[in-house]
Design a protein that fits this description.
By secondary structure, the chain is an alpha+beta fold. It has helices at residues 9-23, 48-53, 117-127, 134-143, 145-152, 199-202, 209-220, 266-272, 290-319, and strands at 37-46, 63-70, 89-96, 100-107, 171-175, 181-190, 223-231, 251-262, 284-286.
Amino acid sequence: MKNSSHINKPVAGQLIDELYKGNQIKASGYRVNHAKGIVLTGLFSPTKQASAISTATHFSQAVPVIVRLSNSTGKPDIDDQNPKASPRGIAIRFNLPNNQHTDIVGHSVEGFPADTPEEFLNFLRIANQAESDPEKFSNYINAHESTKHFFSLLGQIPKSFASTAFYPLHTFKFINKENQVTWGRYKIQPVDGVEYFTDKDTGMKDKNFLQTDLIERLMRAPVQYRLVLQISNTEDDVMRISQPWDGPHDIRELGMINLKQVANDQLRFNQGLAFDPTCLITGIESVDDPMFAIRYSSYRLSAEIRSDEVVKKNNRYMRK
């Protein structure tokens, strides 16, 4: 497994601080973002086409997966209908032979509010003033192409996690056994198709309807997603995660994710399991875009904070 070597702890720490400020609360032991989630287990089965694109282990054999589906914000009790619960998140861990793994992380909006850590930090600082100075926040959105695109896609409430598409955003280089390189971005597409509620529909749902729906679906059949690869065209800017690649693109089918059951011990998984999108394996490499470079340090710092909080909480419990 390989991690990005570009570590900027000062900026990573500032990003985590601003995310906590935006939450307005600090839920001890939970993620600083996407705190409310549900963890499922299942199997990833690659297509024959996948092994021709990359030598990555899971592109040539079926492997177990752990998948976490979640709402935005660091609030573990946020209502599923709350506009701030968007974008929804997905994190996928492919469990490989010899105790190795690799992760994919994405969200339900094909875009991001910034292209560099510094831009993202500035965005978070402005966003944290949205309630006290809404005009300043609105002006910032309108003045920044990336942020304006991102917010134009928010607000839709999915009928189910099983009918939500997800976008991991970063570009990767996929290397096959002939050392041929394919540049592309993952897309995670629900087999049941994408469906959203209208405004009048959502009032009839309970605050945890997305999790309840998944549990009920899994009693009947697996929840399935297609993992596909959008192949880069020469004009695509692979360093900008804020923008989708427009126009016709070659799409390659990589495999099927079959989620079969809710994982046992949800509290442990939701607090202790740390996904890391910079955890790559042979056959897949980063293009080292600016936001990917900061993820290793920020995800590691966030996991350390969460782990320390769990330990302190358990110690307090044991002393009682």
